[in-house]
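Course assignment 3, question 2. Fill in each field.
Student: A.L.
Task: Predict the tertiary structure for the chain below.
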Amino acid sequence: MSDLSANDAISITVEARAHGWRIDHYLARLYPNYSRSAFQKAIIQGAVLLNGLPAKTGRRLRVNDTLSVKLPQESDSSLPAEDIPLEILYEDDSLVVLNKAANMIVHPGRGNYHGTMAGALQFHFDQLSDMAGQLRPGIVHRLDRDTTGVIIVAKDNQIHSRLSSQFEKREVTKEYRALIWGGPDFDSDLIETHMSVHPGKREKMQVCQPGGNSREATTWYEVIRRFDKATYVRLLPRTGRTHQLRVHMNHLGHPILADSLYRGRSQVTQADLSPRGEADAESPVLIQRQALHAMRLTFRHPQSGKEMTIEAPLPPDMQATLDYLESLDR
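Answer field:
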């Protein structure tokens, strides 16, 4: 099978669980680096064929429908290569697995065109997939700006397509670590909700009732260790909604430490975690971003089919916070 370029049509056979979905919704889920509006425009321009004929925007999909799609072109294909250090956890001819640093945007957007992981990838690698567009070279999935940990990058479009399919079919196991305020009632539990964009703050997500533009969101959590004011937890998302883990922890009443968007505070000090709880303006700062880390990712290698598990060590700020909490228990 020949490699795909960004201008080539991609053939997709609709699976059973997408029966009844609108075409633009389905394509936006398959290729989350593109917006629904981009796919709606592509449909209107005739760049999407359904069973060999130009698709219509309102058409609902049926099982085994065949789509032929030319991915939307980026309005700005110039992405500056930037000499930003990257921590490589694994690399072969097909893919790269990185340990993403905190305060690093994965790809450009909303005026952030510099200091991105995408720009660093352009500098460090000669060959990357362009299936997700020129501004997202090789990027198969995303992590929030201040979430650290494991992220996969594809070196060509065939590899990118196979990895994307694993994410879409929920065949990838994602395991996170987080420090949360307080302690949940149970040592482990399944959180099942629906989520949508917050009506008052578009940058936030919220738990909501089913229906409308809401989407199901499911997370399994397990307590690793409880402390006086915080808990160290393992999080296993079964869906991949924007901010899902942060929203679900906040929904439980135990938001992630230093999550300014969902708790309003951007840092945590030693005094904040002390059992005495006294205010201390001079108290050392432990962490200044949400205490969330993508620790482990398990997937099938897109060439060999072998199951792989890649792990990223806990970052220094989370480790320092955990060490301090443990010191209080001694």
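Instructor remarks: The chain has a mean pLDDT of 88. The first helix runs from residue 23 to 30.
Grade: pending
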